[in-house]
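Input structure tokens:
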């Protein structure tokens, strides 16, 4: 009788017998091959190490939330791009477009009693219904931190220094732009409810759209020019003086922040046009732009915000950032350290010994691969070359009787007989050559 499993295999090897439908992955999503995954893990590991060295500890929240969580304050842009769906009990849920709102919900519900400040970091996937292109996906990953409980310029300084250190550690070529939405909002306060929309035009650097909108809501040319001047105000510290002339606002917070950044040797451009797409920011905002990434050049964005009171908690200042993990991965050339790989090849009938030898090698730190296709020794060795293995350990009847194994160095082609119990020592010796 032919088992079902065998029938499946038969169909598998004979395409004319398959009647399946080819299913493409959803638009804007990606599959990652092992090389790419290894690279991503190397980058992720470094980000984790740096975040942890500043005292941040990892948290994780659900992939989906009540859509309301993001609708409350994330801003129109985010809501338009959100994946929203109803579950079977008619609840409206959303795939998370970002992590700050979920973490603040978590904070209010479960960790508001932790000693402040709280330092959290996360590395999670996010979902936005955007037009897919290089560096812009519908599922992407963010590595971010939230520093909760301080409204001091020192907290903003810490997260900026941290983000800068992370990006610097990969040798990336980028610019850091720092702005202040408090200043921007104060300049736009006369617009009332229209200010948020204006902020969005500023965020997108859409001067034309901004001009048309301001005209539409009846803002005169003098004010329009002033808003444009604020939006385009960027440069070194000296622009603070110009800013003071344009906006009646206390710039001392920003000045103290810049003092710390200067002493920490963080290079930045002050840019009052940094508005951030998310509505919850209150003070300092910043964005890192990579050179050579075109329209998708923003590799990190962050700032200080207040969300806790919106989610039913006590008003709590916080600050943080999110790094666009996929975008930095495209810029970084990282390779995982390759572990020495050994193929354990054997003659038919010696499977049990092969499995034992492989296990011994794995326990000594090698990657050990055993044939599971019941192939000839020749084919096993050819596969060893195909997968770029470093060594083959060959198990033959005669050798086993004498307590021996053969080791083949696949780079040089040399082959040696060794005592079975000395196999790992022998491989370590060969590696030292
Ligand atoms: P952009 O202006 O490029 O749309 P954003 O302001 O919407 O970015 P944030 O909400 O600040 O981005 O998210 C933080 C980081 O996440 C961004 O700096 C960016 O690197 C990355 N990011 C945002 N959207 C995507 C996406 N669709 N695909 C890949 N990375 C993204
Ligand atoms: Mg966006």
């Amino acid at each position: 009788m032919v088992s079902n499993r065998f029938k499946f295999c038969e169909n598998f090897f004979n395409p004319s017998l398959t009647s399946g439908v080819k299913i493409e992955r959803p638009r804007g999503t990606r599959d990652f091959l092992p090389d790419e995954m290894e690279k991503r893990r190397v980058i992720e590991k470094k980000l984790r190490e740096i975040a942890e060295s500043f005292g941040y500890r990892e948290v994780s929240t659900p992939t989906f939330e009540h859509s309301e969580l993001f609708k409350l304050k994330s801003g129109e842009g985010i809501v338009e791009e959100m994946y929203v769906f109803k579950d079977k009990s008619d609840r409206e849920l959303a795939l998370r477009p970002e992590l700050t709102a979920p973490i603040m919900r978590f904070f209010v519900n479960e960790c508001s009693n932790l000693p402040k400040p709280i330092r959290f970091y996360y590395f999670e996937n996010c979902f936005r219904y955007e037009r897919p292109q290089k560096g812009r996906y519908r599922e992407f990953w963010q590595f971010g931190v939230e520093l909760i409980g301080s409204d001091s310029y020192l907290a903003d300084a810490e997260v900026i220094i941290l983000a800068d250190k992370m990006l610097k550690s990969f040798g990336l070529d980028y610019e850091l732009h720092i702005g202040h939405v408090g200043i921007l909002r104060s300049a736009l306060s006369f617009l009332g409810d229209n200010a948020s929309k204006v902020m969005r035009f500023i965020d997108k650097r859409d001067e034309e759209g901004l001009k048309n909108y301001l005209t539409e809501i009846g803002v005169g040319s003098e004010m329009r020019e002033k808003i444009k001047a604020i939006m385009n105000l960027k440069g070194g510290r000296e622009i603070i003086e110009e800013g003071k002339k344009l906006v009646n606002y206390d710039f001392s917070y920003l000045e103290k922040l810049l003092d710390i950044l200067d002493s920490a040797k963080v290079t930045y451009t002050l840019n009052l046009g940094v508005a951030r797409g998310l509505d919850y920011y209150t003070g300092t905002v910043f964005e890192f732009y990579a050179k050579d990434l075109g329209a998708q050049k923003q590799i990190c964005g962050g700032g200080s915000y207040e969300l806790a009171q919106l989610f039913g908690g006590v008003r709590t200042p916080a600050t943080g950032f999110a790094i666009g993990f996929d975008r930095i991965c495209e810029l970084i050339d990282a390779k995982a350290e390759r572990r020495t790989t050994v193929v354990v090849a054997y003659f038919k009938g010696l499977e049990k010994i092969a499995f034992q030898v492989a296990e011994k090698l794995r326990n000594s730190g090698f990657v050990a691969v055993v044939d599971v296709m019941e192939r000839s020794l020749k084919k096993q060795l050819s596969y060893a070359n195909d997968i770029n293995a470093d060594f083959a350990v060959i198990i033959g009847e005669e050798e086993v009787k004498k307590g021996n194994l053969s080791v083949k160095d696949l780079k040089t082609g040399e082959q040696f007989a060794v005592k079975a119990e000395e196999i790992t020592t022998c491989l370590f010796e060969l590696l030292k050559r």
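The longest helix spans residues 34-53. Confidence is low (pLDDT under 50) at residues 1-11.
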